[in-house]
Specification:
The protein is mostly helical and 201 residues long. It has eight helices and five strands. The strands form two sheets. Strands 1-2-4 form a three-stranded parallel beta sheet. It has a two-stranded antiparallel sheet with strand order 3-5. The radius of gyration is 23 Å and the shape is elongated.
């Protein structure tokens, strides 16, 4: 198992392409965390995806529906299930790989300050032909019974506001540092030459 974690921002990625790449990395032993799963995209209109979900919803154990299949409605669990279908999850290797995956709606507090990556091979703007219809996983989940879309939206709005404020303060500090360095440039010129000689500037 690889000790480092890869955090992927799900916004704007196509469901199947992202799931295939994540599944491959999981089998290699890489721990994967996917946030903002409600912003992942399906190719095809929302109406088409709703019809497909309705057909999936009809599938059940005839004698005892409690035995499954289970129709997960959270966007994070929808993505988790797609990845599970790409893994040999009934074998030990597949179970171990699936345990390395974490999926979330929104961005949990412990990942607010961590760098999030995108996967160019799964981005909708690069892989879906212009003019084709698409929809969000969050919109489909809301239609089929997921009741926390407003809560997630509110939390994400607060997070973005805090992030914008933090970024504003960071830029202000950077500007002050540049001004301070410029103000003492003449005084430190002799030391700068010495440091340049050692390749430290």
């Amino acid at each position: 198992v690889v000790s480092t974690q890869i955090i992927i921002d799900g916004k704007g990625h196509l469901m199947g392409r992202l799931a295939a790449i994540v599944a491959k990395r999981l089998l290699e032993g890489q721990k994967m965390i996917v946030v903002r799963c409600e912003e992942i995209n399906f190719s095809g209109s929302l109406y088409r995806q709703k019809l497909k979900w309705t057909e999936f919803r009809r599938k059940r154990t005839n004698t005892n529906p409690k035995k499954g299949p289970f129709h997960l409605r959270h966007p994070s669990k929808m993505f988790w299930r797609v990845v599970r279908g790409m893994l040999p999850h009934k074998l030990k290797r597949g179970k171990c790989a699936l345990n390395l995956l974490e999926t979330y709606e929104g961005v949990p507090p412990r990942y607010h300050c961590r760098p999030r990556l995108v996967v160019p091979g799964a981005l909708r703007v690069l892989k879906l032909q212009p003019g084709r219809k698409f929809c969000r996983v969050g919109d489909l989940a809301k239609l089929v019974g997921w009741g926390y879309s407003k809560v997630v939206e509110e939390l994400e709005t607060k997070r973005k506001a805090r992030a914008a404020e933090w970024n504003k303060q960071k830029r202000a500090k950077k500007l002050l540092r540049i001004k301070a360095i410029a103000a003492v440039k003449k005084e430190t010129a002799s030391f700068d030459k010495i440091l340049e000689g050692y390749g430290m500037l």
